[in-house]
Every structure is written in structure tokens, then in C-alpha cells.
Write a structure and sequence with these properties.
alpha+beta; 4 helices; 3 strands; 25% helix; 120 residues; globular; three-stranded mixed sheet
């Protein structure tokens, strides 16, 4: 699993692609990401989704879409993307073909199925 927060990070997806990999980036290959003095918004939200507590407010986060008691990388990505208010477009890739998608849907899009069952 690779989670990147830097500007233009979506441009690295093709180069990092491969089987059994989940790649999440804060923005597309033509965008800047929006970081503060101590964190980048998307990555902070992604981490919040994984641990179940919002890192700034301390409020509970429920990113478990299928209510199985675990938050997969896929679910964390979707929750972070839905809650990111900055003008950036997080990117996701887990099929190995190297083409990013802005919002995966397991079973519907080519990306999403591997990350749905990948836990950190």
C-alpha cells in the first residue's frame, strides 16, 4: 500500500503500478495538494478513517461501509475523498493497470476489489 500526499502525486501511479498493490494519492498528476503547516488534508482524513478518530477534532469516524468491523484501504480512501473539502482530486489504483480513478466502486469499477479486502 502506497499513500502519497505531495503535489502532482497522481502522476506516480503508473510508475508504481503492479499486482497486489493499492496506490492512493492526494491529487491528480496535474494538481497541487493542500497541506497545512503540519498535515495534508486528504492524508490526515485517510489516517482518521483507518484509526476511527478524526485527527483534528477527536470525533469518531465511521468509514466501515460494509459494517464488518474493519476499515479497508478502499473504505478509508472513499471516506477521505468524500470528506476532503480542498480543491484536489484524490486518485486510487489497485488493479495493476496503472490508470487512476477518482472514486472506485468495488464490483462496479476495475479498481476497488483488491483494496476492499486489504487492511492495514
Amino acid at each position: 500500500c502506497c499513500v502519497m500526499e505531495q503535489c502532482f502525486s497522481g502522476g506516480m501511479i503508473y510508475h508504481l503500478r503492479g499486482p497486489n498493490r493499492v496506490i492512493c494519492t492526494a491529487c491528480s498528476e496535474v494538481e497541487v495538494s493542500y497541506g497545512g503547516s503540519t498535515y495534508e488534508d486528504y492524508v490526515m482524513l485517510f489516517a482518521s478513517a483507518l484509526i476511527g478518530t478524526h485527527q483534528l477534532t477527536g470525533t469518531p469516524v465511521d468509514a466501515d461501509e460494509n459494517n464488518d468491523g474493519n476499515v479497508s484501504v478502499y473504505e478509508a480512501f472513499r471516506w477521505a475523498t468524500n470528506n476532503d473539502t480542498k480543491p484536489e482530486t484524490p486518485q486510487y489504483e489497485d488493479s495493476g493497470e496503472g490508470i487512476p480513478i477518482a472514486f472506485p466502486s468495488a464490483g462496479v469499477t476495475i479498481d476497488g476489489s483488491y483494496g476492499f479486502n486489504y487492511f492495514l
